[in-house]
Amino acid sequence: MNDITQFVGYSFDRAGQKVIAILLHDTSGGDAWPAQQWLAYWKFQATSDNPTSAHVTVLRDGTALFCVPDTLASAGAGYGVVLGYNQWNPAAGRPEPNLNRACINIEIVAPKAGPVMYPAAQLATVERVCRGYLARYPGIVIYSHAEVDRQAVAQGYSAALAHHDPRDFDMGVWRAKFTLQSDDIRNAAFNAAGIAYNPQAAFPRYARLHDLGAPLTGEFNFTGGDGAQYSGQGFVGGIVYCVTGRWSELKIEIW
Ligand SMILES: [Zn+2]
User: Fold this and answer.
1) How confident is residue 110, by pLDDT bands cut at 50, 70 and 90?
2) What is the whole-number distance in angstroms between the Cα of residue 70 and the centre of ligand 1?
3) 12 with 38, same domain?
4) What is the pTM of this model?
């Protein structure tokens, strides 16, 4: 899907604040709108008395609409709190500084009523957009609107006004995509040894559980003296094998 850049959304100065976070939202509606309708919506919002906006809106088909440049702030989560960045000011009835000045708001288009399923194309674009901003602003953290509002509620914001988006979205799993995982390291090491790595594959998993050490071979097939078809893979601590297909009945043969 092509990205569309039209800076029609409401924006304001970052007032010297550095970007520290990406905030994810879901739109709770407009899921059937084509890109042009979303652009018209953000344009209209920009003229309203209490405008909202987002840097990026990711449509269900994976189209990304860039409506506010990241050098400026958008109005997506003005009441959110990120510990260490801002805190609730009871006198003002809002946190200071305004989190929007330090974040990038991404709206994920979703139906008004849940449960919400996010199409793969849409999630792929959200990931790509997040990676772009992470490369541009190293060290920033991805939060949900729900998380920063929950923090605000803990400091005095009205629980009734707090947002809970994006719905049906596992932030732990999402953030893990953007951190170094053990499987990243294993994958690189297997590849360096010229051996394909599949974290779900039975042999490496079994070898890890039984402390068999590094792989010495890729997966191989052979016929036993009994005439049965077997699969195996050699690791430093032994050869793991099974009747082909019976991945839950693994055995170890020493070299
Ligand atoms: Zn939101």
Assistant:
1) very high
2) 18
3) yes
4) 0.80
Residue type, 184: D
Domain that holds residue 188: 182-253
Is residue 66 within a helix (H) or strand (E), and if so which, with residue range?
Answer: strand 64-66
Q: Which of these three, 176, 197, 214, is where a domain ends?
A: 176
Give residue-wise pLDDT tens across range 181-192: 888 898 899 889
- Quote the ligand 1 centre to 58 CA distance (angstroms): 13
Name the token pair of 180: 């170094």
CA of 189 to the centre of ligand 1 (A): 40
Closest CA to 255 of 230, 233, 238, 232: 238
- Residues 198 and 159 placed together within one structural domain of the fold: no
Determine the distance separating the centroid of ligand 1 and the alpha carbon of 144, expressed in angstroms.
Answer: 8
Among residues 117, 145, 132, which one has the least CA distance to residue 60? 117
SS3 (DSSP) at 235 = strand
Count of all residues that appear for the chain in the document: 255
Residues around ion ligand 1, judged by CB within 5 A, are 25, 145, 163, 165
The Cα 75–Cα 60 span in angstroms is: 22
Tell me how far the alpha carbon of residue 75 lies from the centroid of ligand 1, in angstroms.
Answer: 10
Residue 113 and residue 89 share a domain:
yes
